[in-house]
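User: Hi! I'm working on a homework problem where we have to compare a predicted structure to a textbook description. Could you give me the structure for the chain below?
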Amino acid sequence: MARPPVVLCAPDKLAGSASARQAAAAIARGVRAAGLDAVELPVADGGPGTIEALDLPSGAVVRCRGPLGRRVAARLAPLADDTVLIESADACGLHLDARRAPMAADSRGLGALLAAALEGAHRVVVALGGTATADGGAGLAAALGVVLLDARGRRVPAHPAGLLRLARVELPDLAPWQGRVEAWCDVLVPLLPESPTAAPAGPPKGSGLSFLRQKGAEDEAAVAQAWRRWIAALGAAGLPVAPDAPGAGAAGGLGLALASLLGAPLRAGADAVLDALRFEARLREVDHVITAEGRFDAQSLAGKAPGRVTARATAAGVPVTVLAGSFEPGVAGALGPEVGWVEVGDPALPLAEQLRQGPARLQAAAQVVARTVRRRDGAVFRPLRSPP
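Assistant: Happy to help. Predicted structure tokens:
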């Protein structure tokens, strides 16, 4: 008797609705209800949920400063021998700043968390994404001993409002930490694609500023000017500064600081997570992949986890269906004719109710998709589509 088709359930989180693990379980329930076998594989892109997706033990907990000064608990998760993974969102995540006040928020807590990790491990991976900060990593730098000064030699705060008065920085000995840190970026976008001295022209598409706007901030011009002063001060101190590097704009500019101060490679977080999960090996054992996230947009195709799941599965010849609460207009069509997609949200419902129903809607959609799945050695899969 032929085995039933096997579906790999590989979603990211649906923010405010379901963690990646909860989403994978909901999709798997729908697949099994259709009589197929399901394998659950929650994924992440280097942002919040990376520790959970990799199923890492929490390890030690460090009490550190949150983005607005309140003390928070952050994890040191053992990743491999003498390697620890930390999430930037633990110390300065969006969920820690209900005010959405980037001009007053800083990443000092992440710097303290990183210092604690470097004391106990030879190598540290920093998962960048989902932060409330837009300080270009100045707070992290201050926590590592970098002194920020104005034109009169007075210390300035490490948040963007303070950086508007920044004239120069004094560096500690960073050599003991350099070469020991790697950054996994949720998006490989630059901080400022144009020259640091260029006049502001609105938030560049696909840069750190464009993500700032998505977070609901209204201070893009001021933040951009703060970043330019920060970039200039780092360069004047003799550090390599590349604001146009892919990943420099991740997590409000934390990628820039880690690369400049510590020489950290900026790696695509989604690919790093998928590599750690042995994704290609898992693809050889399944007939179909279902991935999901809350909103599938242009950034999903530019490095976010569901986009990378789709691209890597398609490259391996495994059919894929994308589930999302909503799709940015025109983006679903860019997935290609061999990829299915289903919009599971109902825009007629209040957002709070859509979020509450998220897992149930994933399950129902997965059950419908599963009825179309065939073994790869059998009939050709015809993508199921629900175009927005």
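For your comparison, note the following. The longest helix spans residues 220-236. The domain at 6-43+277-386 is CATH 3.40.50.10350 (Rossmann fold). Good luck with the assignment!
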